[in-house]
Amino acid sequence: MAVFANRFKKLRVEILGLTQDQMAEKLGVQRPTVAGYESEEKNRVPRKETLNKIADTFGVSTDWLLGNTDNPNINNNDKEFQEFLNDPTLGFWAKEFKEYPEAEQELRKIWEILKNREDGRKPGDKQ
Length: 127
Hints:
By secondary structure, the protein is mostly helical. The protein is built from eight helices and no strands.
């Protein structure tokens, strides 16, 4: 996974300006482990917990580190967001929504009304 190796090394050097020893200490691994992560030939990818630590350290998503997306700012580790995306009713709603494009404007207006109503509420207010 050359994508991970290249992105990890670039972040370490250009963003944090750390040596491999310093990065290893920050991640709680040995320096040869960091070298392995940066080596295209060794093709090493960290375990999930270390991968998450790397993503958190640099403020990027694990998907971006692994080359699954080109947008480093999307954080697919957000559990609530993942649950929302995996909700089967969302897929049915989205499919139906595509079949009725004329309803889009009306739905946007309703959404704005609901957002504006929520903006004026204080924590603990009844709905």
